[in-house]
Amino acid sequence: PHIHSGEHGSQPLGKVPSHSGDMKLSLVTRSGRELLADGIDFQKDANEVTVDQLMKLIEQLASEGKIKGMKKMSVHRQRITIPGDPKPVALASGKSLAEYNIQDGAVLTLKDLGPQIGYQTVFFWEYLGPFMIYPLFQCCREDVYGRQFTPCLAQRMAMYYWLFHYAKRLFETFFVHSFSHANMPIMNLFRNSGYYWGFAALVSYFVNHPDFTSPDETRVKVAFALAMLCQLCNFICHITLANLRKPGEKGYKIPRGFGFNHITCANYTFEIWGWLFFNIATQSAMGVLFMCAGALQMIQWAGQKHKRLRQIFDGKDGREKYPRRWKILPPFI
């Protein structure tokens, strides 16, 4: 059957009127399989149809069993793209179909992203784990290591730093960060939590071990003081990013201010430096491995963001030109 939007505003989006609409779209899978035999007919032109309306209509049609092989298709599970070269263009919430030059007869690709979960929920669990796991190895050391001993200064300060770091992350999750996407695939919860929880146990086990050899106390104190300074700088960077857009604004902005005048991802810079000083104070192989794993991921993200900002702010057609900056780790990257 033909699926229509409302006629002259009198019918709700998704109702089936008795005649064809002004714009018809085809919906297919990535392999090209047609999902709606007769497509989607709208009684509106592209200027009047938004991406959000299209997604709600797809959700409705799926719940009614009218989309082949897709019974559950909430708006959060949908990825709708326009086939393109070299890569497809994804439709974004808040925009109209006209902004993508979608016209009558266009073919759109629908992908089911699977079960989704909120970003805040994922961040909460992945950060709560390290906050709870790390101190267990020090507070329950007799049970873990089978002997009594008194933690040295480096071990005590490492635990305080670790707890402060993840308490800060939890605070930022609920009171500082704003997320460009509401949800992510639910499997990310297990992958991310496995990474953070696993490294928390490994780093804590070796740093809190009774055979741990501490650097001299001056080195420990100076290193952790610098690490805490990096935490403060990282927090300021996150506040700067949170205030980048005015209420209601969307789209990309050029970050400016503390750290960002010279580095595209200054928040990552201070994050990596903080863990570098942590490892100078603890000289733990597992701590170094944890730092390197995180740094490699942040370097990849920074490269992607730097490239995207340079493409958007190319200095053409009245657009601002992105200033020359380091990506993440001056003077190397």
H and E string: EEEHEEEEHHHEHHHH
> Which percent range fits the helix content?
40-55%
Low-confidence stretches: 1-21
**In terms of structural class, how would the helical and strand content be classed?**
alpha/beta
Oligomer: single chain
Radius of gyration: 26 Å
Extended strand count: 8
> Kindly, what is the distance between the CA atoms of the first and last residues, rounded to a whole number of angstroms?
56 Å
What's the arrangement of strands in the largest beta sheet?
1-3-2-6-4-5
Largest sheet: 6 strands, mixed
Share of β-strand residues: 5-15%
Q: Compute the average pLDDT.
A: 90
Number of helices: 8
Mass-distribution shape:
elongated
Can you put this structure into words, describing what you see?
It is a single chain. With 333 residues, this protein is α/β, with parallel strands linked by helices. It contains eight helices and eight strands. The strands form two sheets. It has a six-stranded mixed sheet with strand order 1-3-2-6-4-5, with no helix packed on it. A two-stranded antiparallel sheet has the order 7-8. Strand 4 and strand 5 form a beta hairpin. Helix 2 runs antiparallel to helix 4 and helix 6 packs antiparallel against helix 7. The N terminus is likely disordered.
What labels would you give this structure?
alpha/beta, disordered N terminus, single chain, 6-stranded mixed sheet, two-stranded antiparallel sheet, 8 helices, 333 residues, elongated
